[in-house]
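Q: What does the assembled structure look like for these inputs?
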Amino acid sequence: MAEITLVEAVNLALAHEMARDPAVVLLGEDIGNNGGVFRATVGLQQRFGAERVIDTPLAESAIAGTAIGMAAMGLRPVAEIQFSGFLYPALDQLINHAGRLRNRSRGRLACPLVLRTPCGGGIHAPEHHSESPEAILAHTPGLRVVMPSSPARAYGLLLAAIRDPDPVMFLEPTRLYRLFRQPVEDDGEALPLDVCYTLRSGSDLTLVSWGAMLHETQAAADVLAAEGVSAEVIDLATLKPLDMDTILESVARTGRCVIVHEAARTAGLGAEIAASLAEEGLYSLLAPVQRVTGYDTVMPLSRLEYQYLPSVERIVAAARKTLEAS
Amino acid sequence: MSTVARFQIDHVRFLDPQGEALGPPASLPDFARDPAQLVPLYRAMYLTRTFDAKAIALQRTGKLGTFASALGQEAIGVGVASAMRPEDALFPSYREHGAQFVRGLRMDECLLYWGGDERGSDFSVPRQDFPICVPIATQVCHAAGAAYAFRLRREPRVAVSFLGDGASSKGDFYEGMNFAAVWKAPLVIVVTNNQWAISVPRSAQTASATLAQKAIAAGIEGVQVDGNDVVAVHHVARQAIDKARAGDGPTLIEALSYRLGDHTTADDASRYRDPAVVQEQWSFEPLTRLRNHLVRLGAWGPDKEEALARECAEKVNAAVEAYLGVPPPGVGAMFDHLYAELPRALATQRETALRFAPTADREHHGGDHG
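A:
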């Protein structure tokens, strides 16, 4: 089995679905001849032709908007927004149309599109290239929001996203694109889009995270393990709809929870998870839930970005705080 | 210095406001001398106007929500939709029920939508036309994407998108047109220039001499048509649709008209425009124009007019009755079409909604068809 990076897994999944289903088309800026600025679509235009791998004009709203029209007419478009900071012009189309078309036509028209976009910081990118917009998307009815944390997960979740009959926002952490390799079999097996994954079992506290922050979260679990603390680590994978059952079940055993995310704190997904724990799991909590998040600041330019991103030290400190509570 | 590009915009009109042909009879398109083709256009425009009057009356008596009338611009919707084939796809804005009725939309379904019920957009026919688009100009992108899908599958189908003069100021109008132009996709974009975007006049919307010339920036043909002359609208639409179907790319049509009514039933246009000007515009309205032309052809008279009035009133009344007879949707309908399959997290919320719903809803579990 080939060991591949996350960005190669994305490419593998796209190629698999394009070969399997002639309705799958890709569209976006620089995705054709150039293979995408991160090379996620490299070789696909050469293999499947320019009609199915479309280099679009530079306009994000129309990339999303035309994908909606394609999807409603029976295609399975996978649109790429080059960087998540350029996603915002497309929000009108995603919020007002992609997420609503099935509902407003009572199921007569559907919108099975995937919108892929790199997200998050940590690669010393220019301004507007390191955003974490998942909460905006997760707040929108009718959308699904997915963020893989490994090559294998990226492959299986992307297959599922393309096959899903509804719009899926597929956020790819740029920091993970080439961070590590993993054996991924090109077996066409999709992963479910409504479950969290327990990456590591533990009994003393539950660490919940998604995307690139799982890297720091796992490292924090290692530090805690060296201190004799057994941390369970949960990867959300699908951010909307959220599988609270897995988190609640874990917290019922550990009694402690730290939520880690890169996006800004206020009204972030961490708040949603903490609120759900308070509503449904309060009596199993032995300590207040802690959040370790990006600050409510503008994502800084590269010199300060690692001060903004939650660090192993911050996660360990939050974990200790929950452990010190009665 | 040298000139690298020049352009001109044609204005098309066959009938003057009194319905008299502007040129010799031979200058008219063939269909414009054929009552068998013209009478259906007149009937469709008459029905639209009858429907509008009734819908406004329903709103005034609390039986319909906010409604946007097409008064004065009936020729645009009817003239364009009558040039489409059933398998084509329409992407309407919110003032195109005239076009939608020609496409086969039932009037009771249209009323159901404006009466606050999503089932009104679950058209019995045509199943692939988009519901009306309330956000401005976004539908141009949807139509461009649909047109791309048709072309990719080598289907001889055309997407037709409507928008208003105000919408021509939005990015999605240009973006959608530009994508379709680059793709040479089978798309026809129709700007219904009724001179008003709620209270903002066309002169405050753009410094362009015409809206049709916005096509030039996208490298496609732009044509202006007298939108109150249904012969001209139908002729231009037919040419554009045929061209798109033949694989020769998109066209932008600017149809000049005048919004004789308020923006919607929630608007009072007398606050911002002179009623005398509106009165003056009545002399250009499209129904009289075609009726006079039909009379000249010997194909119309008072008897037929009376019979049509009666027939349209009966059809509209029957639609109103059907609409008023539809029971409200169950509470569960909010959830049942959000996703193909309701996620677990939402199932809990649906249960909550049902628990607090009126008793009747709880008894039959609240869905659309329960």
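Chain A has a mean pLDDT of 97.
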